Amino acid sequence: IGLIGSLISFSLGLLIGGIAGYFGGWIDGILMRICEMFMLVPAFFLMLALRSVVPDNINSLQIYMMVVLILAFIGWASLARIIRGMSLSLRQRDFVLAAKAMGVSDLGIIVKHILPHTLSYSLVAIMMTIPSYILLEAGLSLFGLGIQDPIPSWGNMLSEAMGIVQIQFAPWIMVPGLCIFVTVICFNVVGDALRDAFDPLYRNL
């Protein structure tokens, strides 16, 4: 869920941010106001609101797909704003102006010439966002609104550990929580390593 949701949301964020930054003007204004509307609502409450409109009489696979889409839907706005700022500066570069003079379409310039120059930041941002998606899904499943049996999820496994009696007589039911902790730490460490690898100032030290 973390991987698929982040790929979908970052694809949306890259494309919308690239379009807003490249065209500017009223297109930029409308898209950024939409981003701000999504960013005003805390992610977990927005996720609960979106999940509440999904009917309960669907199977586990459909719930899985709904959770992926909900996570992707709430995560694109912050990236879009940052990519928009980078695109504003990139659109005035010589290689972009040369592509325009050669007759390359606007979409071709955005996809082939602008967005690839934001790839280093995007890779780091994806690695840093996956842990938050894992925690959001675990929280949703913990409350019984996310992935349910028979599809396994760390969140619905942890729902068995809600009572102190279960923890006292079966402490191993806390293992999914340990797995979440280790996985989140690992993704954060990899994200920090990628940030250092792509940082030119760090490489020059």
Secondary structure layout:
Blueprint: H1 2-23, H2 25-40, H3 43-52, H4 60-74, H5 76-90, H6 94-101, H7 106-114, H8 119-142, H9 154-158, H10 164-169, H11 175-198, H12 200-203
Helix pairs in contact: 1-2, 1-4, 1-5, 1-7, 1-8, 2-5, 3-4, 6-7, 8-11
Word description of this protein:
The protein is mostly helical. It has 12 helices and no strands. It has helices at 2-23, 25-40, 43-52, 60-74, 76-90, 94-101, 106-114, 119-142, 154-158, 164-169, 175-198, 200-203. Helix 1 runs parallel beside helix 4 (60-74), helix 3 packs antiparallel against helix 4 (60-74) and helix 6 runs antiparallel to helix 7. The two termini are 37 Å apart. The model has no long low-confidence stretch (mean pLDDT 81).
List keywords for this structure.
mainly alpha, 12 helices, about 0% strand, elongated
| Rg (C-alpha, Å) | 20 Å
> What is the makeup of the main sheet?
none
Arithmetic mean pLDDT: 81
**Helical amount among residues, as a percent range?**
over 70%
Give me the secondary-structure category: mainly alpha
Q: What is the end-to-end distance?
A: 37 Å
Count every beta strand, where a strand is a DSSP E run of 2 or more residues: 0
SSE order, one letter for each helix or strand = HHHHHHHHHHHH
Number of helices: 12
Ranges with pLDDT <50 over ≥5 residues?
A: none
Please state roughly what percent of the residues sit in beta strands, choosing from under 5%, 5-15%, 15-25%, 25-35%, 35-45% or over 45%. under 5%
What best-fitting shape do the alpha-carbon axes yield?
Answer: elongated
